[in-house]
Amino acid sequence: MTFAGMEDRLAIEAEAAWEERDLPVTLYQMLSQTAQRFPDSNAVSFQLLSGPGDKAETLTWRQLLEKACQAANLFRSLGVGEEDVVAYVLPNCNEAIITLLGGAIAGIVNPINPLLEPEQIASILRETGAKVVVTLAPFPKTDVAQKVNEAVRHAPGVETILQVDLNRYLTPPKSWIVPLIRPKMPNKEELAHADYLRFDREMARQPVALAFEDSGRDRVAFHFHTGGTTGMPKVAQHRYSGVIYNGWLGQKLLFTEKDTIICPLPLFHVFAVHVILMAAVASGAHVVFPTPQGYRGEGVFDNFWKLIERWKVSFIITVPTAISALMQRPVDADVSSVKTAFSGSAPLPVELFRRFEEATGVNIIEGYGLTEATCLVSCNPVDGVKKIGSVGIPFPYTDVKIVKATPDGPQECAVDEVGEICVSNPGIWPGHTYTEEEKNRDLYYFDTYLRTGDLGRIDEDGYLWITGRAKDLIIRGGHNIDPAEIEEALLGHEAVAFAGAVGQPDAHAGEVPCAYVELVEGASVTPEELMEHCRVHVHERAARPKHVEILDELPKTAVGKVFKPDLRKLAIARVYNAALEEAGLPARVVSVIDDRKRGLVAQLQRNGADEAEVAQVLGAFTRPWEWAQQSAE
């Protein structure tokens, strides 16, 4: 069925109520049905290196089902029941996919970002009560094995560590060299308390058919941590029903068994797992994962168009920051197989959309989703009008309300009125979004609508527009400034590849806008020229940044979003140090930490400064400060 607009969406809903649709109940059922329909069709492919001729491993749907069952059997043999957790701390590889599927069939699977620090990984393992952790064996150019060992030392519930050796993906002579340069694991005294086993060896001992009965009921099967790379992430829980919903949307509206999707996004994030992989499980599409780091992998951007040609890709999965990087490389291969590019994670600047379309001839579909909603919420219609800059219309069975808080309680906004985006759909579990009960308080409006924390509006045609994050608003003297306007203006400059606008502390207005940019490779521009560009192109005077700084690289999350907490830290340190220097005080900010209760806190080196004088200078700002531990005396 086509998906061209609101009429099609309503027609799909009119076919049957969601609860009445004949759909699988569990992941095992969904995977089994697809393996039965397309047993010998390609399911997933992974290549360790990014070259268009480099070795790749492909699994058919029959093989993927068998390996998922082996993994599920293995986890059950290690004591994992339906309410127990299997965590994996892995880069992209076929073992990550197999662990994901097998873990969710046997119990609850918990993908964890391998870029996190050991303390954060340990926090997640303790929060979820993980029994088994699947991770890398020591491998050159990565410290994942060492970080996980340290994390498990502080997660007493972990009983078993299963190690994956990426060397099997290499060919001689590289595969011969790895054992000679492989990093060493810690000695016995420093090893974690868990049993260390080889993933491949333990898998080989398991039968290829499920050795236990699938429950056939809806239940929690996934734990996803939210947040970026600092602070202690929250853990969201997903049921089979939400995952089935995402898979069904992909099958119904986006993909068929004839599609090949390239997905250089990480398999610890809902975009790659639910929007892409689960949609492939439902539809029978083929998914290609290039390199363990995806878009971050060595040579991926340089070889991207050749990989498209190699795999005859029809769908590109991307994010705005990746699109910007790709636009700095020529389209040097046959990309005629591509039908559509699907972009998510952040709003796509209009100028970037146009650059991509002109360079490739491919339309971009912008979509919107979030971890707490088991991901998908809306997208621009595949077959209909795509409003550049919007995230399209809500998917069938998803209800979106724009809500504002008033003294009389929450009220729904009028057409085009900006408020908080609130969502109800089969992927949302009111009252149970997070594993920590306290974090679910005040998270819903009207009992069933998840408060996303995103600001947006719905236009007269039913299209959803994201205008910013509620927490990203720059509040200048009580005046709300949307950072998106500043970023859009800066991204319109030909020298700018990425931009992030945040509020910097201000003694008079509370905060004022500032911006950080990353330049296109080889480009040259001064901060003063960018300030002048903003003066012309940022129409609201109050929104014009007071400071523009050029960084070699902006901090980004694993899925390519500009990571604004790090930019706020830079702004706090810069402003506070400038104020201290102007006052003639030797104290300096040496770090800015993210405190759970106080937010961002500046930590100062005393350097002999008088505390009362420092307090007088920094007391004019709203952000708290404290002495760094080493200089407290």
How would you summarize the topology of this molecule?
Blueprint: H1 6-15, H2 27-37, E1 42-47, E2 57-60, H3 61-77, E3 85-89, H4 94-106, E4 108-111, H5 118-128, E5 132-136, H6 144-153, E6 160-164, H7 174-181, E7 195-198, H8 199-204, E8 220-226, E9 234-239, H9 240-254, E10 260-262, H10 270-283, E11 286-290, H11 300-311, E12 315-318, H12 320-326, E13 340-343, H13 350-360, E14 363-370, E15 375-379, E16 393-394, E17 399-406, E18 409-412, E19 419-424, E20 444-445, E21 449-458, E22 464-469, E23 474-476, E24 479-481, H14 483-491, E25 496-506, E26 510-519, H15 527-537, E27 548-551, H16 564-582, E28 588-595, E29 599-605, H17 611-618, E30 625-627
Parallel strand pairs: 1-11, 3-4, 3-5, 5-6, 6-7, 10-11, 10-12, 12-13, 13-14, 26-27, 29-30
Antiparallel strand pairs: 1-2, 8-9, 14-15, 15-16, 17-18, 17-19, 19-21, 20-21, 21-22, 23-24, 25-26, 28-29
Polypeptide structure, described:
- With 633 residues, the protein is an alpha/beta fold.
- The protein folds into three domains: 6-458, ANL, N-terminal domain (Rossmann fold, 3-Layer(aba) Sandwich); 473-562, ANL, C-terminal domain (GMP Synthetase, Chain A, domain 3), CATH 3.30.300; 569-631.
- Helix content is 30%, strand content 26%.
- It is built from 17 helices and 30 strands.
- The strands form seven sheets. It has a nine-stranded mixed β-sheet with strand order 2-1-11-10-12-13-14-15-16, sandwiched between helices. Strands 17, 18, 19, 20, 21 and 22 form a six-stranded antiparallel β-sheet that branches.
- A hairpin with a 3-residue loop joins strand 20 and strand 21 (449-458).
- Helix 5 (118-128) packs across helix 6 (144-153).
- The radius of gyration is 25 Å and the shape is globular.
